[in-house]
Amino acid sequence: MSHPTLSHPLHTHEQLTTLVENRTIYSLDAFELNVFETHRVAEQVPLSMGHLVLTTMLRGKKVMHLPGRPAFDYLPGESVLVGEDQTMVIDFPEATEDAPTQCLAVAIPTETIRQTVDLLNEEYPHAEAHLPWRLDTAEHAHLTNTPELTGTLERLVQLSRDTGRVKDVLANFTIQEMLVRLMQTQARQLLFHNYAQHATSHRFAAVVQYIKQHLADKLTIDKLSNLACMSKATFFRVFRQELGITPVEYINQERLAEAKRLLRQPLASVADVCYRVGFTSTAYFQRLFKQAEGLTPGAYRKRCL
User: Fold this and answer.
1) Whole-angstrom Cα distance, residue 305 to residue 260?
2) What share of the chain is helix, strand, coil (3-state, %, to 5)?
3) Which of 91, 160, 198, 283 might form a disulfide with 205, Cβ 3.0–4.6 angstroms?
4) Which helix H or strand E contains 43, and what residues bound it?
């Protein structure tokens, strides 16, 4: 499945040019939005924003160096969360005048983060009390964007350009939504990729493990809610609240990922793959696959073989 990226290019208003990067700043009461554009190859460029910052790669490639972890490639469709006391050190291995590197950075006031996290923990507590709502700037700081997070970032970009009188009011709501989407994205990364190590301590990790092990079976909300020791309604609501995706959407996402793997095998027919991953209707499978990938399972299979 392709990573969602911002759908429109960004242009400059007021511009600050540093040694390597061109920096454009859009300041609102609720947040500061920065656009960094780099036109030449460089190494070991330090950048510190003074606030907690969500950066999102728009174009090109960077190599990021963050304290306490190995360097990693940073590509479009990904985000990196950087703490207010952290300094990013960045390499630009491919930037040119014709193909610049472009990155979005949203600086978020500490008080806005505190108020949002406190509200969530008070009004919408997690299923596991030992894992409250919080922003993780260490283990899960490097993220693959979800469509929900990308959509919220697009609205922040639009608001930063808006000249309407109520834009600061709208910005307050939107930055809170972005924080929620960011924490949901981190929770997905924790559970969907590290479910085995949390299966005995987190009910949703146990559910994720069961789904992955029984994709070809009939997976019902009754069964999954029983695994989570919740009523059906509570399970559905809290799963979506914490992870930003419904249980059914997650099951379909996993089935489509497995279908893509099977379709790359030369002897697998589309119908066979459909039933092997747990779908009972080829028409439904075809529709979901095309929505997710932009082409039919048959076309995907031909492209891969």
Assistant:
1) 12
2) 45, 20, 35
3) 198
4) strand 42-47
